[in-house]
DNA sequence: ATCATCTAAAAAGTACGACTAATTTTGACA
DNA sequence: TGTCAAAATTAGTCGTACTTTTTAGATGAT
């Protein structure tokens, strides 16, 4: 969505996510039209989209009511972006990291059962590139290959619900680097586990793939927990 | 979303999900207005919502293009409903069951670390009701308590991404009963595992909670796999 | 005084028409 | 044949008029 309409969506959605409008607050479409500087037509489109995300509810003779955040579609990519852009950044990152920790081991297991020969080849290749960039301490290139690796595993799981989470995983991995939640150079263990996942999937060894991926995810969760402890305590 | 606008959304969205429009097909808003029997204003709102779900993309001088299903927001509740209502029902149910199998063990682990005393009490209570309805072979009541149990665990995980999946879990559990994918009476093992999860969470034993929940989910996945084998082979 | 019922107002919902803007196609010209 | 300009096409935006639903308030009867 782009143009004036997408802009209005971005502003109103962002405002709601950052808490500019308190839960239960009632807005009127004409007010919104004035505030956003657009026609009521555009406001209606925006409201409809936010409604489909569970963020607002529109009722005749009442207005547009901001819904409690428990109703929001937490998996909506746009909403995730709003949350990551706002104050709740670290909370959101923790939620996503936990989600990732749950998903990826199962994805690795399924990938071991379902990956095509081509996907196996790509996995092995990416793992090798991870090893080499880890040795040369090129963190940027390492991150790119890391994201690529996990995207490939999710793709090989052959489950749309898992495949779609590649953006989430990419966000978590990037966030880790961006907030310096990981060592200055990749841990040798972590690199080895990636190789192990690639091998296990290629050999169709589901248990081994799941275990290795669990090791990767657990380590990431520990790093994340340490960070949040450092932030709050 | 309700009224004529919600109706139009439901019809167009449903048509796209069931494959009435092939991927890449281009629609024109005026055609859609005629087909749906609504004004272009309403069509625009509907298209905007479908656009935010990744199902279509609108471009000037081109039209409204149906996007490949890989782009669709697989977690959108409305989209899940459309898929469950159409031909892809069993595929969707399998995807959801796998997702659930990944999520719930981690949710149980987190719940063991975070559940409030009140939530623990509720869990124990629901587990006891599951035991009694299992004994009296009241499958309907058992299903209701089963759904309630898993919703409580997800809530206690204190992670919005997990909490939101309670509808998915409910759908999987209901689907199991509806398609007769489970025994005529609940397996004693399954009931015992639920009690174990409740106890482990109440005692703050994360590992034990995770293991017991894994047992529950694994069994459900096995049942689901058996079904699909029976369908296709 | 209280309850039911009717009425009026308020807000979103819908439709339509006019115009704008962007993008692709076409075709003329070099 | 290539380039650039014009035309055609389609979504985007706006404003207005009207409809429908829902709530609040007034009115009236018991």
From TrEMBL, chains A, B:
SMART domains: FCD (SM00895), HTH_GNTR (SM00345). It comes from the Bacteria. InterPro entries: GntR_C (IPR011711), TF_FadR/GntR_C (IPR008920), Tscrpt_reg_HTH_GntR (IPR000524), WH-like_DNA-bd_sf (IPR036388), WH_DNA-bd_sf (IPR036390). The keyword Transport does not apply. One of its GO terms (molecular function) is DNA binding. Keywords: DNA-binding, Transcription, Transcription regulation. Transmembrane segments: none annotated. SUPFAM superfamilies: GntR ligand-binding domain-like, Winged helix' DNA-binding domain. Residues 2-69 form the HTH gntR-type domain. PANTHER family: GNTR FAMILY REGULATORY PROTEIN, TRANSCRIPTIONAL REGULATOR, GNTR FAMILY. This is DNA-binding FadR family transcriptional regulator.
